[in-house]
Amino acid sequence: MPDCVFCKIISGKIPAEILYENDDVIAVLDINPIHFGHALILPKRHCKDFLDVPEEMYHSILYAAKIVTHALVQSLHLEGFNLFSNNGTIAGQSVFHFHLHITPRYSDDDIRFVLKLKRYSSGEMKRYGELIRQFIHQPQS
Ligand code: AMP
Questions:
Q1: Residue 46 catalytic?
Q2: Alpha carbon of 31 to ligand 1 centroid (Å)
Q3: Threshold 0.85, pTM exceeds
Q4: Which of 18, 46, 50, 62 gives 1 a disulfide partner, CB atoms 3.0 to 4.6 angstroms apart?
Q5: To test ligand 1's pocket by mutation, which of 10, 32, 93, 98 has the most ligand atoms within 8 angstroms of CB?
Q6: What is the average pLDDT value for the chain, to the nearest integer?
């Protein structure tokens, strides 16, 4: 994808600090980290979001995530980490080439996800379960 910043990193058109690479995946340092060492796992094939990732890539993506997370934990003595992906503008996605974030966490880092948690009323959880189960299908890829 000519205008995709991650495709440009993958093709070597723009520089990045590469942590790990295999045939399917590249892992780089995020240019604006939540903490130093914040890493991104990028499939080499352009796919815009999680639902667009081909099934044959699933293993490579998680395999790379585990290798890189392990390296972060050991090298930076992490006390914990977050692994997440923003999908869609409303969810905070700013680069429309699927990626996993791996962010270091420390006990004194004062980062909080501010969530307003809801409660299901009586029978509502069951109704949501019934609705969603009607759409459980094999992934299309
Ligand atoms: P998201 O907002 O979840 O789509 O995440 C995109 C991430 O890509 C952000 O955390 C950016 O800091 C990061 N990013 C954007 N451009 C670059 C780049 N050239 N090299 C490394 N990371 C980048």
A1: no
A2: 6
A3: yes
A4: 46
A5: 32
A6: 96
Q: Show Cβ contacts of residue 69 under 8 Å, excluding neighbours closer than 6 positions.
A: 81, 83, 102
Q: Which atom of ligand 1 is nearest to the CA of 29?
A: 21
- pLDDT, tens only, 104-123: 999 999 898 889 999 999 99
pLDDT band of residue 138 (cuts 50, 70, 90) is: confident
Name all residues whose Cβ lies below 6 A of ligand 1.
5, 14, 16, 28, 30-32, 40, 86, 92-95
